[in-house]
Amino acid sequence: MHVIGILGGVASGKSLVARQLADLGAGVLDADRAGHEVLRLPRIEAAVRKRFGEAVFGPDGRVDRARLAKVVFAGSPDRTGKRKHLEQLTHPEIGRLLRQQAEALESAGTAVAVLDAPLLLEAGWDRLCERLVFVDVPRQVRLSRATARGWSEEDFAAREGVQESLDLKRGRADAIIDNSGSPEQTQAQVERFWHSLFG
Question: Which CATH code for domain 2-198?
Fold first, then answer.
């Protein structure tokens, strides 16, 4: 099975491109779902509670990802240590679940899968991928999209600051999709990329 990894900056539209590839027939390796599942593992919940306290848990007793993100990405001096601690806890388990998803898709006869993960390079999950696609959007457009989601400029900068540089991501990519226009314009590029794989 061929795996296509999606790269891009914060709010670049990686999930849109992944959905459009899925609409063309690709299976989806869902890193977001894997992240949710990992934060529900009793061992991970206990480690998160020990490191970050009760404040990151919701009324249901489960880790609240929004609360956890506020703590991990907040402007505190030790935010890098907090983020790295969380990644050391969760990334190996997320990687394991992604490999399980890939095996299940391959067993079902899926020819191509797409992996959309915010820290794809940073976590080493690009090793699962045969090709990498970079979703290119100017910073101001991405910032505008992020603020429309309710993020502050500080949130945007904090999230972007923990990721590899856009130049590095662009340089690693086998193909570039410009997502600064309409979804239809992006779709046309995604279809061209898809047909370049399969003729």
Answer: 3.40.50.300
